[in-house]
Amino acid sequence: MKHLWLTAKLDLVESLRSRWFLIYSLVFGGIVALLFAFGLTESRVLGFIGLSRLLVTYIQLAMAILPIFVLITTVRSVAGDREAGVFEYLLSLPVSLSAWYWGKIVGRYVSIFLPVFAAMAGAALWAMFQEIEVPWGMFLYYTAILAAMGWCFLGIGMLLSTLARSTDVAQGLAFVTWLVMLLFLDLILLGLLIQSRVAPEFAITLALANPLQVFRTAALSMFDPQLIVFGPSAYVILDLFGVAGFKIFAVVYPVLLGTLSAATGFVLFRRSDLP
Amino acid sequence: MIRFDSVKKLFRRHPVLDGVTLDIATGERIALIGSNGAGKTTLIRCLLGEYTFDGEVLVDGESPRKQRASVLGKIGFVPQLPPPLKMPVGQLVTFAAAVCNSDPKRIETIGTRLGLNIDELRNRPFNRLSGGMKQKLLIAIALGRDVKVLVLDEPAANLDPEARHIFFSLLAERIENTSMIISSHRLDEVAQLVNRVIEMDMGMVVLDDRVADDSNLAAMLNTKLRLHRADDAIARALSEWSFTDVGEGMEWHGLVAGPDRLRFLGMLSRYVGLLKAIDMVELDPGVTLQ
């Protein structure tokens, strides 16, 4: 366990010194600053005003940026470290492979979740300072969604880093994975549904296997609990899970998917050439 | 101590190690030589448990893949190319000491002996150090703990003559109870350090020979050179070896570390036409560089 924490700390310090972390933090901090600057807390959409309005917009933007950011930075740094000889040296030290791999994930998780959460927490603190009401229930659920999303894509990123032997291939794989998830959000899925006359349950199950769709639906469910904007699909989802059940599913499923991906990556990592 | 038994490694169906069998006993100092692609680095990576392979590698009866932490606890490794780590020097030392159950002070002491002030460099990122500093730090980490095997890949390539001598002295202190594998492209770089030479080619051992084991790793040679005439090129080369001009470029005095003598003579051979006389006398033990 000691080695795991040492590796996590090492990875965290490496991340904090890297350029991607600076850009990543600036992007999320910048989004919140811009949302405040453009007076989003004073505008109203679907009855939402104040910090709720800002959080709704923030989570939508985070959903668009976070997955690709996490995927690309994870595969770039892990595959890049391997190519540059960092693995050759650090894995010649007496650290067990499990401590190394999971320690790296823990360190990286802190570095990807911290800026996203800090931006949101900063917004809440600023709102309190400005005497704007903070919707704590929404704040906590969005925190959970972002935490789950970060973990999910980190796990997928680690799996892709293990599969690919070079940074270029790893980056390509990460981009294609993200693109497939993005295309399956609505466009291809609806086309399939119309063309193949498949059962709606099947199409929706396929949609809900896509973590991007799960986040999107969960984020929408906060201001549209009956998922009216989804039309008939909402019946299938709500019949299957119920409102509260879906909220739990939207956090648990991505965490399980991320863990499964990371665990698969670990098995492959342990069986393959390390550097 | 170390046993390679029919070790085979393929990369895309191409054999990089082709049934290597070797036994290395405690106290053996091996020069692992061969051209690029001969299989030296692959053999080292199999020993470090970093590659999968067919056959068996055992260190003290344990497998580096299966009993990784235990085996690597016995091996100190210095890579040929320093890793591009961004972490500060202090953190690298603390991390290495913690995972190796060693004391950071021990690493710092070795670093100081090699001429590296770790206290001053504590907050500097590792990748911002000069090539020589990186090499010294990696050597300090490898030697700053109790190991039974030292695996050194071109370890002295970036070191100045003083640091090379101290490095050889540090190796001499461990000569009795440590096996050493020193990888190099050229035998003259490491010849005086070793008592066995293993040459690899096309993934196979093509030469396995014992060499005379009467050189003192910590020895120093008081060296005096006289030239027919002063020459800028040899003056520059001798200055790199910290030689002093005592006769208007025609006479030079300096110290050469014992294990470096072949390398020094190799350098001199480029200017053999200029040489009038050469005198190399081994100093009494205990004499140190000023």
TrEMBL record, chain A:
First and last residue of the signal peptide: none
UniProt keyword Membrane present: yes
Domain of life assignment: Bacteria
GO terms for MF: ABC-type transporter activity
Residue ranges of the TM segments: 21-40, 46-72, 109-127, 139-160, 172-194, 244-269
Keywords: Membrane, Transmembrane, Transmembrane helix
Example of a GO cellular component annotation carried by this entry: plasma membrane
PANTHER family, sorted: ABC TRANSPORTER PERMEASE, ABC TRANSPORTER PERMEASE PROTEIN NOSY-RELATED
Protein name listed in UniProt: ABC transporter permease subunit
Organism: Denitromonas halophila
Lineage, opening ranks: Bacteria, Pseudomonadati, Pseudomonadota, Betaproteobacteria, Rhodocyclales
From TrEMBL, chain B:
All residue ranges annotated as the ABC transporter domain in the record: 2-227
Entry-linked InterPro entries: AAA+_ATPase, ABC_transporter-like_ATP-bd, ABC_transporter-like_CS, ABC_transporter_ATP-binding, P-loop_NTPase
Keywords: ATP-binding, Cell membrane, Membrane, Nodulation, Nucleotide-binding, Transport
Pfam family name, one: ABC_tran
Alphabetized CDD domains for the sequence: ABC_DR_subfamily_A (cd03230)
Alphabetical list of SUPFAM superfamilies matching this protein: P-loop containing nucleoside triphosphate hydrolases
Family according to the record: Belongs to the ABC transporter superfamily.
GO MF terms, alphabetically ordered: ATP binding; ATP hydrolysis activity
Signal peptide annotation: none
Name the UniProt record assigns to this protein: ABC transporter ATP-binding protein
Plastid found in the keyword field: no
